[in-house]
Recover the amino acids of this structure.
């Protein structure tokens, strides 16, 4: 897995989103999702958590996963994909790590990941309000992170539940979590949150 991540990291500067996911330019949304899920199972940082990786390797794996996630996000959204394809046709930035790719400083992404991890721990302790603060900040950095969006929805639910108004909030939270879990299988937490709301 580490060798695969290293191979992909060498391609980040020149590879298009299609190349990175290993799908043709006419790939269907289902093909894009399947390719992403396969790479997510192989390259998600949590997969490497049990190994004692050096900092450089850990950062490289995270950078690759961020690029894969961004490629999936762009190619799964019809409007973003059309814009991306247009930029490729006109010689724009094709790389998964360039301006049309990750689009943000890696240290900011690491900060967002840490905020999400901290928030997930707070949620486990039923500290919805504190978790929501961290998730709001994380989502200001990585607004399309499905784990952060799911955790935020559940943290809001926990905060309302603490005030005794959970029944009114449960339906909206359930809808948000159902939408997120429909396209996201890399982590279990969104499914756990959905189960708790049910």
């Amino acid at each position: 897995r580490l060798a695969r991540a290293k191979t992909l990291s060498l391609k980040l500067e020149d590879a298009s989103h299609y190349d990175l996911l290993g799908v043709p330019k006419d790939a269907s949304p289902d093909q894009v999702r399947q390719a992403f899920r396969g790479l997510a199972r192989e390259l998600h940082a949590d997969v490497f958590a049990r190994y004692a990786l050096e900092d450089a390797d850990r950062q490289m794996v995270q950078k690759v996963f961020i690029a894969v996630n961004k490629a999936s996000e762009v190619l799964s959204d019809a409007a973003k994909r059309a814009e991306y394809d247009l930029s490729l046709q006109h010689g724009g930035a094709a790389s998964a790590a360039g301006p049309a790719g990750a689009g943000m400083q890696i240290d900011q992404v690491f900060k967002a990941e840490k905020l999400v991890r901290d928030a997930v721990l707070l949620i486990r302790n039923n500290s919805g309000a504190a978790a929501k603060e961290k998730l709001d900040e994380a989502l200001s950095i990585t607004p399309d992170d499905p784990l952060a969006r799911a955790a935020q929805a559940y943290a809001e639910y926990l905060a309302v539940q603490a005030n005794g108004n959970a029944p009114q909030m449960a339906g909206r939270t359930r809808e948000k979590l159902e939408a997120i879990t429909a396209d996201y299988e890399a982590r279990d937490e969104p499914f756990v949150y959905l189960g708790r709301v049910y």
